[in-house]
Amino acid sequence: MIGTPDESIEREAPASGDAALAHILAPGVIDVTHGPILYLDDITVSFDGFRALNGLSLTLDAGELRCVIGPNGAGKTTMMDVVTGRTRPDSGRAFLGQTLDLTRMDEPTIARAGIGRKFQKPSVFEQHPVWENLELAMKTDKRWHASLRARLTADARLLIEQTLATIGLEHEARRAAGELSHGQKQRLEIGMLLMQQPALLLLDEPAAGMTDDETMALAALLDRLRGTCSMIVVEHDMEFVAALAGAQSRVTVMAEGRVLAQGTLDEVKRDETVIESYLGR
Ligand SMILES: Nc1ncnc2c1ncn2[C@@H]1O[C@H](COP(=O)(O)OP(=O)(O)OP(=O)(O)O)[C@@H](O)[C@H]1O
Ligand SMILES: [Mg+2]
Question: Domain of life of the organism in this record (predicted)?
Fold first, then answer.
């Protein structure tokens, strides 16, 4: 076990640097002693008889950043819907860590347990400054509630400052979120999710609509988060996937509601079934 929810209310003032960020981003009650943070086994989801997920099995190790690729309609978003409790599977098992059965938890409970989700469209409070967006995101988290009734504790301020640096918006803190570029808004929204200190972050096509520079800034941000939380990144932009996965990370290819192939990006790109169904020749 990594701490308890109550322990996370009282936070020590951490030292500076990424190690400190890892400390304050430590997840709550997720038992990852055996390695995996997410375990999906033989998941099936049907919509009017059509199997959006058809025997999907996928395991994510704690701290891993996994890119998931695959053609339109492969079931990538549906997989995230199952993990976040938005869609109930017809059959199969879904666990967060060793002990938390996601199929028996509702959406708010799953979010509180430490799963954050980024949808494609950025949703920030446009009228509010960047800093306040992060503060507001923190206030929706009950764990900070007691300490925020009067004013921000030193710990809370530190977490906001560190998050600003992580998302590369430390010079935009006083600007209204509505004035930010699309890429900056996307990074701000990721920062807002980070304020909830997720153990697992799900990002559905985060680079969509971004310029090349914004895409690479996003890749750098997710790279900085590596190890502080586990991530699943669904993406069609292969340059972005290449930047995130590098030569080592595992990439999952989904098609027709299940895993078609898994391996390094080079390995899956050479896979005949992947070439046929997704990448083309
Ligand atoms: N609520 C729903 N009702 C009916 N069918 C649905 C529903 N949600 C998803 N589907 C269908 O399930 C299949 C999988 O959809 P999903 O959105 O998970 O694919 P995806 O891999 O995310 O695709 P994309 O890359 O286009 O985002 C699609 O055929 C889709 O039309
Ligand atoms: Mg989708």
Answer: Bacteria
